[in-house]
Write a structure and sequence with these properties.
globular, Aspartate Aminotransferase, domain 2, 2 domains, 13 helices, about 375 residues, seven-stranded mixed β-sheet
């Protein structure tokens, strides 16, 4: 057990995977099968994930970053193109645009109360060179489908959902022309590393992603074995972005629990909101008025401007509560600030300077939430 339980001094972590005997057994079955590279389990995981998200098919990849790269490459985004991206995100959201030779254009968030990509700022940043939008579901809260679809259609833009935080959220993967999910170790379900690309309406796009994830080879090792022929062709420049059977086996087990885990996250988030609103005056809990679905990937709060965040982090750590920040803005990272020195995003910068992420995962209980809030309420300035 790696979280605070009211009677010991073990650190309560921000996020923690739920792994157990079923995952162990699934890994053992892969070893017994003696087929460990991409094969039948990967395909089964793809099909099950697609069914769970209400889409026709899915393509498993080695990471969400790989999936975002493939999504842009499969649609021909490249040099001379611009892609609208959130700066309030992990750096991979912008990196994948540079991978294909295009230019990321950072978009501000709506407000501290709703830190999703601002449609108004996206309109301002849209030019004749803009080809695509990476629409991120920050903290698991889905962006609104209708206005973003209308914006993309009006400007002839590719709309790709960065759904790294949104596994299991009803509607995720059905907003844009495609979506990419993450199974990193701190996500709502995990395969340690891994990702999934889905598309609700474009099977040709998924076929292209499937081709590019494996060096552009026309057949996989398993397909050649089953067909009893060693021949293959390479029809495109691809990458080694495949998922292996071990990760797929874990994913199949994890997927069965995803809905229940997300329900637990929802209940814990609601308890957090109620306790924080009651006990921590001046602390903002974003998404109070959010009307869309959420996977409740993590619990962000916004501290009052006069509060020293580093002191809050220190005091919570002393009470065995881990915290983190989602995210240091991409445009302020050294690599990006050197390359794009004139970017200013006032809402993102204000939010990121005051945001603090509190522990939220299915291994927690109500006592954990109340402990976190009690410590926070006891810190001077709250």
């Amino acid at each position: 057990m790696t979280h605070w339980n009211g009677s010991n001094s073990v650190m309560l972590l921000v996020g923690e995977p739920a792994l157990g005997p079923e995952e162990k057994a699934a890994l053992g079955e892969v070893i017994e099968s003696n087929w460990i590279t991409m094969g039948s389990r990967v395909r089964a995981f793809e099909s099950a994930f697609a069914v769970a998200h209400g889409v026709p098919d899915a393509v498993a990849v080695s990471s969400c970053t790989a999936g975002l790269h493939l999504a842009l490459a499969a649609h021909g985004i490249g040099p001379g193109d611009e892609v609208l991206v959130p700066s309030l995100s992990f750096v991979a959201s912008a990196n994948c645009v540079l991978y294909v030779g295009a230019e990321p254009v950072s978009v501000d968030v709506e407000s501290p109360a709703s830190p999703l990509m601002s449609l108004a700022d996206a309109r301002e940043k849209c030019t004749s060179r803009t080809r695509a939008v990476l629409l991120m579901h920050y903290a698991g809260y889905l962006a609104s489908r209708a206005p973003w679809r209308a914006f993309a259609a009006r400007n002839g833009l590719l709309l790709i959902e960065d759904a790294a935080h949104a596994a299991g959220a009803d509607g995720a993967g059905r907003i844009g022309h495609g979506a990419v999910f993450s199974f990193y170790g701190n996500k709502n379900m995990t395969t340690a590393e891994g990702g999934m690309v889905v598309a609700a309406e474009d099977s040709a796009f998924l076929d292209r992603v499937r081709l590019l994830r494996g060096h552009g080879m026309t057949t996989s090792t398993r397909q050649r074995l089953d067909a009893r022929t060693p021949t293959y062709d390479v029809s495109a420049l691809g990458w080694n972005y495949r998922m292996d059977e071990f990760r797929a086996a874990i994913g199949l087990v994890q997927l069965k629990s995803l809905a229940g885990w997300n329900a637990t996250r929802r209940d814990l988030a609601a308890l957090y909101r109620a306790c924080l609103n009651e006990s921590c005056q001046g602390v903002l809990v974003p998404f109070e008025a959010h009307q869309e679905v959420s996977a409740h990937h993590f619990l962000p709060i916004v501290l009052p401007k006069q509060v020293d965040r580093s002191e809050v982090i220190r005091r919570l750590s002393q009470a065995n509560v881990q915290t983190t920040i989602h995210y240091p803005p991409i445009h302020q990272m050294s690599y990006y600030s050197d390359r794009f020195p004139d970017v200013r995003l006032p809402c993102t910068e204000d939010y990121a300077s005051r945001e603090l992420t509190l522990p939220l995962h299915p291994k927690m209980g109500a006592a954990d939430v109340r402990h976190v809030v009690a410590v926070l309420a006891g810190i001077n300035g709250h």
